[in-house]
Automatic annotation (TrEMBL):
Belongs to the universal ribosomal protein uS17 family. This is Small ribosomal subunit protein uS17. The gene is rpsQ. Part of the 30S ribosomal subunit. GO terms for cellular component: ribosome. Keywords: Ribonucleoprotein, Ribosomal protein, RNA-binding, rRNA-binding.
């Protein structure tokens, strides 16, 4: 019997905007989603802030980033940075 490597499935990924990069190796990301109201049918924007592990401190405030779910890294950090989609424009 041969053992096959079974890769763990990555958790789902989200896209959001970096609100804060003041912590070391951690960023705060605002994730927004559109949800249809069950009665009125209007689309409502729901948002939440999540803490994301950024090992290389590569994301800056205002960047759009893609994040994915991971094992708990600390009490509040359960997401990791996959990539920076777009950099923020500096004025």
């Amino acid at each position: 019997m041969t053992e096959e490597k079974v890769e763990k499935s990555e958790g789902h990924s989200l896209t959001g905007v970096v609100l804060s990069d003041k912590m070391d190796k951690t960023i705060t990301v605002l994730v927004e989603r559109r949800v249809k109201h069950p009665i009125y049918g209007k689309y409502v924007i729901k948002s939440r802030k999540v803490h994301v592990h950024d090992e290389a401190n590569e994301a800056a405030e205002g960047d759009t980033v893609q994040i994915s779910e991971t094992r708990p890294i600390s009490k509040t950090v359960h997401w990791k940075l996959d990539r920076v989609v777009t950099k923020a424009q500096k004025i």
